[in-house]
Design a protein that fits this description.
Bound molecules: fe (ii) ion
Number of strands: 0
Strand content: under 5%
Helix content: 55-70%
Mean pLDDT: 95
Distance between the termini: 66 Å
Largest sheet: none
Radius of gyration: 25 Å
Low-confidence stretches: 465-471
Number of helices: 19
Length: 471
């Protein structure tokens, strides 16, 4: 057959594939759509499990990776929805569960009590199974006729490979000689659910499903943020970094310590935004996509703080990183009210004294990396204010009303500054002088005596402080 094609000195078929692959005739549109819908379901459920577990997951590196991988899954879910929509007329049935056993596999992982089983379930079972199903699709479908699907899946496959690489390391980190056998058994158990569903693709013979384990009980989202041991004294609000940052007596280079603190503290935003996503129903997928993008940005900003501290030669685990913002919002407000507070605060970052000011401080500091980080942080926060207008403000008559509601919700959040101290949860110890002195030692610099005497707490402030620069 190939010999019947007229010859040309150019590569054939726009470089999509060699001739033999163009002859593949295994799948028509109907079969491709049903396979793609299963991949879509897996991405969607992965996104859900990654999101609903990150607030209560203590390990910082996992919190940030769950945020990133949730964002990737949200993007690929969207791409597959679009692709299915190109191939079929509505209703597309994208909300239909393709197989009860596939659903159960995710319900089991979502409900696992511990980090180890969560990590093995996501990264040791589901991501690799998804990768294998995509690889199989790519060698089965006609790469010329179905080129748009191939394009979407090749891109997804790149990011899944990165998630699996991270996951391999995470699985090694959670596996011990003591739990190895139990984790192997858990892996086998989850694979049995996938097999009962005919695999991710649904194209293998369905086997007998195992008995439900954790998913036998009704599942509930855990709103209480948890942190690992490096985040000691998390109720401590004995230092007010915004007050330091806006005090003209202090140098820009000293202010970098407070900027790094504020960036790292942003890990509380994913902890809070995950609760909005977990508890908001009936929104279009684009809402989940946009909110997850923002959630990931906030996790990324926390890592900018982490890297910022490393650049300054400071061990951040010596500093109490406060977590009461996510704790109080998650436990005192409903999802809509939390979104209102988020928008109110982020809108407050837009004026002159907000993100621009932080960037100027970083520029003035003489540390180019700090200026780069603040520049991108600023750009991201402008995007977030835009996303807030897109999803939150639309529900109000105008911006003024939306802001007033956010302000009112914010005012209702109790900071419990004194209560935390009276209950013995924290002494609100002023950590600044030790941290500043240690940093100066590392830098070989003399501490500025005025900066050293800084001792302003959050006691007299609303949980947020000023409406500007609250995050
Ligand atoms: Fe932020
Ligand atoms: Fe930020
Ligand atoms: Fe933001």
């Amino acid at each position: 057959m190939m010999s019947s094609a007229p010859t040309s000195p150019f590569p054939p078929l726009a470089g999509l594939c060699p001739w033999p692959d163009a002859f593949r005739d295994a799948l028509g549109v109907e079969e491709c759509v049903s396979w793609l819908k299963r991949l879509h379901y897996v991405f969607k459920r992965l996104h859900e499990v990654l999101i609903v577990r990150l607030t209560s997951e203590p390990q910082y590196e996992l919190k940030t990776a769950l945020s990133l991988h949730a964002y990737w899954c949200a993007e690929h879910t969207q791409a597959l929805r679009t692709r299915v929509g190109e191939m079929r007329e509505p209703p597309l049935g994208l909300d239909v569960v393709p197989h009860a056993a596939l659903e159960r596999c995710f319900d089991e992982i979502r409900a696992t009590p511990g980090t180890e089983e969560l990590v093995v379930g996501l990264y040791g079972v589901v991501f690799p199974a998804l990768a294998a199903a995509i690889d199989e699709y790519l060698v089965t479908t006609n790469p010329l006729a179905d080129a748009p699907s191939v394009r979407v899946l090749r891109f997804a496959r790149l990011e899944i490979a990165d998630a699996i690489t991270f996951g391999d390391g995470a699985v090694r980190a959670v596996t011990t000689p003591e739990n190895r056998m139990a984790l192997d058994e858990w892996r086998t158990y989850l694979v049995a659910w996938l097999n009962a569903a005919g695999g991710v693709s649904g194209r293998t013979t369905e086997t007998v499903p195992p008995a439900p384990r954790y998913s036998a009980k009704p599942w509930a989202f855990d709103r209480v943020p948890k942190r690992d041991a490096r985040f000691h004294d998390p109720y401590n609000a004995g230092v007010n970094p915004e007050a330091f940052l806006h005090d003209t007596r202090f140098s820009a280079s000293d202010k970098l310590l407070m900027l790094s603190y504020k960036r790292l503290r942003e890990i509380d935003v994913p902890e809070m935004m995950a609760s909005i996503l977990a508890e908001t129903k009936g929104r279009p997928w684009e809402f989940s996509l946009d909110m997850t993008r923002q959630l990931w940005d906030e996790a990324r900003h926390a890592m900018l703080g982490e890297v910022g501290f490393a650049k300054l030669g400071v061990d951040w685990s010596q500093i109490p990183i406060n977590f009461t913002w996510s704790l109080n919002l998650n436990t005192q407000l409903n999802a809509r009210e939390r979104h209102a507070v988020l928008f109110f605060i982020e809108q407050g970052l837009m004026p002159r004294q907000g993100k621009r000011y932080e960037w100027e401080v970083a520029q003035e500091s003489g540390v180019p990396l700090a200026a780069v980080f603040q520049d991108f942080d600023w750009a991201d926060e402008v995007l977030h204010a835009h996303l807030g207008r897109k999803w939150y403000v639309k529900e109000f008559k105008d911006l003024k009303e939306a802001l007033a509601y956010g302000d009112a919700c914010w005012s209702r959040v109790m900071s419990h500054w004194r209560a935390y101290r009276d209950q013995g949860l924290t002494g609100h110890h002023n950590w600044w002088p030790e941290v500043y002195r240690a940093a100066c030692r590392t830098w070989g610099a003399e501490p500025d005596p005025v900066a050293l005497s800084f001792a302003e707490t959050y006691e007299a402030k609303r949980a947020d402080l000023q409406p500007i620069a609250a995050e």
